Every structure is written in structure tokens, then in C-alpha cells.
Amino acid sequence: MPNSKPLQPLVLDALGVSGLNTQSNSTAIEYNWLTQADNVMLDTEGRLTSRQGIQQVSVGLTDATSSVNNTKIVKSIGERLDKDGTISYYCGIGTSVYELDTSKKPHTLTAQSFTGTAPTVTDGNWQWASFNNHLYGVQRGHLPIQVEQTTGNMLAIKEHASYGAPSSVTTFNPQCIMADFGSVWVGGIGENKNLVLRSDNLQGHKWNTGTAGQIDLQTVWGTDEVVALASFYNRLVIFGKRNIAIYANPWDAGTSGSTFQLQDLIKGVGCIARDSVQSYGDDIIFLSETGVRSLARTTEKDNLPLTDLTKNIKEDVNRNIPRTNGAVDQVKSVYNSEYGFYALTLGHKDLTFVLDFRATNQDGTPVVTKWVTSKGKRPTSYLYTLGGDMWVGHGSEDLLDEEAVGAVSKYTGYLDKSYTEETTTYGTQSACETAGGVWESTTSTCWLNYDTNYESRFKTTWMDFGIPGISKLLKKLTAVITGGKNSVMSMTWFRDYEQTGVSTNINLRPSTGGAPALWGDSTSLYGASKFVPTYSPVEYKVPLSRSAKTMQLEVANTVAGEKAAIQNITISAKTGKIR
Hints:
With about 575 residues, the chain is mainly beta. Among the domains are: about 10-50 and about 455-579, Jelly Rolls (Sandwich); about 415-450, no CATH class. It is about 5% helix and about 45% strand.
């Protein structure tokens, strides 16, 4: 009797580490790529895991009777640093600016009034810039506004007692702003979209005296318009829609500057969305007409080549890139320096792409995945704070969606959380706190922060064990997984390009491997030890069945407070006949 054939293992020890690839044929790429990657990230050890939670930290607005949809959407968040080290936060929501009071838990949003003659405000899509103790804000079709130091008074810049209007400008309504090189810079004036203006040195309200000046880019790049401004290694970068101008010695810009000069002009590629521009390390990331690009230095540091960072999902990005002003204004981004990723939200399509720069692929691109959020947690703005927190503004155009009122959340933990008022049920401080809520004594209000699970899901390429055309008898799947307490992971396998697969669930039961002490209480002289469990890898076995020449694996994990990281997956099979 002939010997039975041995099991042949397919060890997936680098499963999905290259991220999402929808540009290549899923049958022709290796298993280090993914064909679906929703709420998936790589952890610090390069293992597949889920994104962190979006946990509400502010009370949502209560304007449910409003007839204006966008009054419930946090479209911008700004951070002002005062000279005494005080930090304050302001949010653009509808036709108002709200101060975010972080001294209260949950934080509160309070509408601010303008000092002097109030400008006409129709939207909350401000771009904020903190400069010399003040906070400045601009947005398309609006007069610039200012939040002053110490007093916190909010006013239109033209209402400042020492305001100096820029010369040759009838209506001062820039769409983008940057504070650097000793001045405030703005661009994209309504009547001349090629104009960039610089304020007087250290005075963001004076635009016609001292070192104030103007640059008309029409004489530089022809027909285009200024979209965004950035600083890059002591150079001023001016993004047009189809061109990029780079100026040397911006400290010397102004009416009498002698060394301020055009250093480089990149034609044919520009930035289409103001809020897509983010700096990280020695690079600048932005959204062009054909995808997310990088303005990076060469090793000689005298040239600025462009790199397409989303070429592996090019068609996905291109067909969802906004083409109108209203849709472009809904593009938001953030660079999280703690975790090394750039998140880009195309709000008009409810899409968020995440580019992880901690590990790059052989083609020089970052690992790309997607975020999928519930209706109430859809990102509509971001802020990475000076303290290292990543905040997410959100809201909804659906006035009946009570969970989607304008609010601010923090990217942390492994649960989505939402505050809900429960004063009717828990009307006293003791009852509220016993129920696990937060009692706001000023208003005698009880807030409960409810946990919401979310799902991470990824799908592999089609795998043939390196022997295409030969049937494999699928025997078992062995997954080595760390963590994931209280969560359920679903494994589904598909055969030979079929759309219907076979599924089984794994209840994750991580093994506690120790309890290290972490630094804890800041009020203690020496701190207090906080003990948290660590988890050792656990091997889970799943029986497989039937035969296939190729197979595809889909993994879905219900995230319930703990992350689950996949160490590797091994699929065992016996070779069959050629068919």
C-alpha cells in the first residue's frame, strides 16, 4: 500500500505586512499584500492588528432642532499656545466658533461671541494657525478671524485697533494660512487666487507696514491658484493646484527683502486640498489630482522629487478624489507622530485611508489600510495636539442621528465610546457615579460613556502554495495570535475564486504571561505602580475541508477592548491531482 502524502505547510509569517493592494491582480501578488484592509493596522512589532478606538471626550451639541445640517459637524479644531504655557482649543462648527473646555470631564463646547462688528460666518471649515500667543483662522470666502492672547476675545482681524489692510486688495478673504518665519502668511485671496501675503514681523494684524509683503504667483506659474502653504527646511512652500513654488530665505521676505528668492518650481503637480498637507520628519505629504504624494529630499538635499505614496491603491483613490470646492473642503488629514501614520479622510465619500510610515515596502510606499467608522464617529476634522493626543472631530448631516451630534473624540484604547446624558435615570451624583458615569456638578448632569465594539476585517490574495494548477486537500489552519481578550475572530476561506466561503469562529482566550509594573500616579512623590497583564501567543487550530487549487482567507475580529495581533498563520494541505 503506498505511503500517504505528507502535509505541506503554507506558512504566512508576513501576512499582510505590505498593506492594501487593489491595483494589482489579486492572483498575481504575494500574501504579504491584502485585498481588503478595514480597520486594520500594523502594531509596533509589525503584526496585523486593529486600529485603536475613537472615544468621545466632549459633550455633543444639543441643537437637534436646528434646520441647518452642518451646525452639528466639527469641521476644524485649532490649538492656541499662550506665552504662559496655557493651551486653549477652538472648534469650527456651523456658523459659530466653540471653545473646547478641557478642564471639565466630559469636555464642553461653548459658543463664542465676536468682539466688535462680527463677520458673516457661513461654515466651520477654518484653518487655524497659532502665532505669537494669538490664534488666527481663515476659510474660503470669509474674512480672517483672531482669538487674542490672555483675554481670549474673538474678533475679525479688521476689527483689531491697529489693523493694517493689505494694499491692492479690496476684500481680504484668504483661504489658507501658515505661521512661520516670524510672520503670518495667507494665500488664495478671492479676487486674486494667485496672491500670497506676509504680515508684518510678529504682528498678524498688520499687512501693510514694516516687513509685510506680497507675492503674485501668476508671474511665476501662470494660470493656477494658491491652495496651501507649508514650511520645509527654512524654505517656504506654496502649493497651487497644478504647481509648487519653493522659496529660499523666507525670513527676508517683505518689501525690502534682498535674499528672498524662488528656488524651485515644480510644474504639473500640485495640491488640490488645503487640509491634506501635513509635515512629518523631513517630508511633506499632500493630496494631488492623482493621489497622495510626498515632497521629499534626495540624499544631496538639493532637489525635491515627488513620490506617489498611494500607487498600490491608485484607482481607489483617483475615483474618489473630490473635484468641487465643497467636496475639497471636506478633505481632512492628520499626521500622528506617536504611531507614525498619516490619515486622510475624503469626507464627501466617507473614506479614510491610513498611510503607515513606520515600515515602507520595497517600492518605497508606506503600508496603506482603511478605516471604517460608525455614522456617529465619521471623522470630519483632526488635531494632533502639542501634548501628543490625536483628536477627531465628528458629526452628522442627519439631524435625527442623536449619536452623531458635533463632538470631539480621542484616538485611544480599543473601544469606540460615546457620551450620553442619563440624568433622568441617575439624577444624583452618587447614583451617577455608582452607575459608572461622570457627574457634572455645575449643571447637575449625569453622563455615561458607553462602549461600542467595532470590527476589523482583512482579506488575503489568492494563494496557490507555490504549485499552481495542482489540487490541494485542505486539512487545517493554525493561527498564532496574541491578545484579543473577550473578542471573537471569524475565519472564512474561499476556494478557486468562488464568492461564497466556509466560516468558523474562534473565541480568543489569551494566556496571561506576566504582570509588569508601569509608572502610574502623577500625584505620588515616586509614582504608583500600575500592574497590567501581558499576553503570550496562543495557538488556535481550525479544521479545513475540501480541495482547492487556490484559496483566499478572510479574517474578521470583533474588537472589544483588547487588541488581537496575528503572529502568523499556517495552512496545511496535501497535494492532489493536476486538474
